[in-house]
Write a structure and sequence with these properties.
- It is a single chain.
- By secondary structure, the protein is α+β, with helices and mostly antiparallel strands.
- The chain folds into five domains: about 90 residues, Alpha-Beta Complex (DNA Primase, Chain A); about 120 residues, Alpha-Beta Complex (DNA primase DNAg catalytic core, N-terminal domain), CATH 3.90.980; about 130 residues, Dna Topoisomerase Vi A Subunit, Chain: A, domain 2 (3-Layer(aba) Sandwich); about 60 residues; about 170 residues, no CATH class.
- The strands form five sheets. Strands 1-2-3-4-5 form a five-stranded antiparallel β-sheet, with helices on both faces.
- Helix 11 links the parallel strand 12 and strand 13.
- Helix 11 runs parallel beside helix 14 and helix 20 crosses helix 26.
- The longest helix has about 30 residues.
- It is globular, with a radius of gyration of 27 Å.
Length: about 625
């Protein structure tokens, strides 16, 4: 069974020894402390490794998990790659791969080799070929130095129908079909092939591991389109890839911020001038997959798009993508029509960099790097940008203009859950249309910000087949999209009154899963919209995770029409919350015994007190013979 393999790997790898290869750790009682590798901090060690539970937690950035999570977050690997790496280290033989798996892996490896060879060919052509004089002049004109050209491996595709094709087949020995599968050549209608990229400055597109998976080409003459990307291939889907992320990833983590620009040159120039947290989508609007990639690295995202109308529209779309994909507090909000629905109070800070008219980031940076720094520092919060963008075409001196402004902005106001921020923006809208605050407040839905009530007296969930509560909760989350928001809202609400507990338990669903496969499954599922077709999604998973998903989906669940599943899901979550809180309480109790400093002991005791209060708050249902089994379970 795959669970046995994963558990065996974890048993054979000591997390302290493993993390010590990345982080300098010092013993602190039974645990180990060090500086977090996932965010910048050189003052106080906030990264703790717990040998007894074989887990880690950072009290600064809240990164936490098992050795599997550490490798995936630190190295940017997928679950399967992580499992293979750790299994090899542990001397554990994995389940034999199928013939289809082997063929797919061989194709991927071969296509990576084709792309790597093509990148070297283009790069050498740019630097050495007499046919590349115009390309070298263009690169020089754009102010790119030799170090930058090398770092991004810029190249040139000659104005020749078969220069690359001849090199890859005659000199490197690749098959025509492999070169075509990599998207580098196009098959003629009659017979033969020709190079896809000709007469273009070439930008290798790399994955997070730095492997070339595709190319972008800029025409140097009048050819159309001006920019041409590789087609979709087994390696490349432009909706998943951000240009420059392989070079920007560590800086984004360290600076805890990512800047999104529009073009290749914008990214390259930014990196050349030391702004190495800059990335760009590949000729497409920001997608949910882009947002999912970024939210693993940072909670602060800046958008720097054109200042013209098209740029504003692109920025608005980008903001919506980021907001809907950013995991945060789940709340219930009323629509302008008075209908209650789930919404997200995002924990991701999204700001908009106001670009000067007619200027791109690369123009600004090359002319005055300090000006770019100021533009980033003075980036607008998304609400400020929305207010300006959504009212720019209105006459705010007329009654109709004022009414239209309020109609457009009220739906935004109801989504601001922080009461201070809500009051600030309500007053701002009132000043904008020159009316009293109470007029704007009257336009808000009367039911705004009411949270759903829920009973603490719920019975223990019942399942026909033996299973863990983790599996049961995962099954409910996968089967019922509304469960995700309900459980998230409950967890955030439970911990909101206990700030010291919140330093340990942030209230995310991922914290409820201890098992590496369940954590990986939930991370993968949460990156997709709730209405995603689950069977198609399973087909995208590694076989190890797909088997576990199939297992949990076969758990007998309550009839969805009865709505009993909601109570069972909340109950499962509560029991797992208690497990997590009691584990933290045990850790703190150990620390309290081991510390010698009275001030530290007092701080730990405060945590223990709040943990006890938190546990009591979520664990003691009202006495009832109907729920006697649950009461006994919770107070055990």
């Amino acid at each position: 069974m795959m669970n046995t393999v994963i558990d065996t790997v974890k048993e054979r790898i000591d997390i302290v020894d493993f993390i010590a290869e990345y982080v300098q750790l010092r013993k602190a009682g039974r645990n180990y402390l060090g500086f977090c590798p996932f965010h910048q901090n050189t003052r106080t060690p906030a990264f703790t490794v717990f040998p007894e539970t074989q887990s880690y937690h950072c009290f600064g950035c809240k990164a936490s998990g098992t050795v599997f999570d550490f490798v995936m977050q630190r190295e940017g690997l997928e679950f399967r790659e992580t499992l293979e790496m750790l299994a090899q280290r542990a001397g554990v033989e994995l389940k034999p791969r199928t013939e289809v798996d082997e063929q797919r892996d061989q194709l991927h490896e071969r296509l990576l080799e084709v792309n790597a060879a093509a990148a070297k060919f283009f790069h050498h052509t740019l630097l050495k070929s007499p046919h590349s004089a115009d390309a070298r002049a263009y690169v020089d004109q754009r102010g790119l130095d030799a170090t930058t050209i090398e770092a991004f491996q810029l190249g040139y595709a000659r104005e020749d129908w078969s220069a690359l094709l001849t090199y890859l087949t005659n000199h490197k020995g690749f098959d025509l079909e492999e070169v075509e599968a990599a998207g580098l050549v196009i098959k003629r209608d009659q017979s033969g092939y020709y190079d896809r990229f000709r007469g273009r400055l070439m930008f290798p597109i790399r994955n997070v591991k730095g492997q070339v998976i595709a190319f972008g080409g800029r025409a140097l003459g009048d050819a159309n389109p001006k920019y041409l990307n590789s087609p979709q291939t087994p390696l490349f889907d432009k909706s998943h890839v951000l240009y420059g992320l392989d070079l920007a990833r560590s800086t984004i983590r360290n600076q805890e911020a990512a800047v999104i620009v529009e073009g290749y040159i914008d990214v390259i120039v930014a990196h050349q001038y030391g702004f190495r947290n800059v990335v760009a989508p590949l000729g497409t609007a920001l997608t949910g997959d882009h947002a999912a990639v970024l939210k693993k690295l940072t909670k602060r995202i800046y958008l720097a798009l054109d200042a013209d109308a098209a740029g504003v529209n692109a920025t608005l779309k980008g903001i919506e993508t980021l907001r809907h994909q950013s995991e945060g507090d789940v709340i219930v909000v009323p629509t302008p029509q008075g209908v209650m629905q789930w919404g997200v109070d995002t924990t991701t800070e999204i700001r908009v960099i106001a670009m000067p008219d007619g200027q791109d980031p690369d123009n600004v940076i090359q002319a005055d790097p300090e000006r770019w720094r100021l533009l980033v520092d003075n980036a607008q919060p998304i609400m400020d940008f929305y207010i300006a963008a959504l009212t720019s075409d209105l006459d705010l001196q007329s009654a109709r203009g004022k009414a239209d402004a309020v109609a457009r902005l009220v739906p935004l106001l109801v989504q601001v859950s922080n009461p201070i921020e809500h009051a600030h923006y309500l007053q701002r809208v009132a000043r904008l249309v020159e009316v009293e605050d109470h007029v704007i407040r009257a336009a808000l839905p009367a039911s705004q910000r009411k949270t759903p009530t829920r009973s603490k007296s719920v019975k223990q969930p019942e399942f026909d087949t033996p299973t863990t509560r983790e599996d049961a909760l995962l099954a409910l989350l996968l089967r019922h999209p509304s469960m995700r928001t309900a459980v998230q809202e409950k967890m955030k609400s439970d911990v909101s009154l206990f700030p010291l507990v919140h330093e340990m338990i942030t209230g995310t669903l991922l914290e409820l899963f201890d098992r590496a496969d369940n954590r990986a499954i939930w991370q993968a599922w949460s990156e997709y919209p709730p209405d995603t077709d689950i069977e198609r999604w399973i087909a995208t998973l590694d076989v190890v995770l797909a088997e576990q998903v199939q297992h949990v989906l076969h758990i007998h669940l309550p009839d969805s029409q009865s709505y009993r599943y909601m109570n069972d899901g909340l109950e499962c979550a509560t029991i797992l919350q208690l497990r997590l809180a009691r584990r933290w309480k045990d850790r703190c109790s150990q620390e309290e015994v081991e510390v010698n400093n009275d001030e530290e002991r007092f701080a730990i005791l405060e945590r223990i007190i709040q943990l006890k209060q938190y546990i009591d708050t979520i664990s003691i249902p009202k006495r009832s013979s109907m729920y006697a089994d649950l009461h006994a379970l919770r107070t055990a």
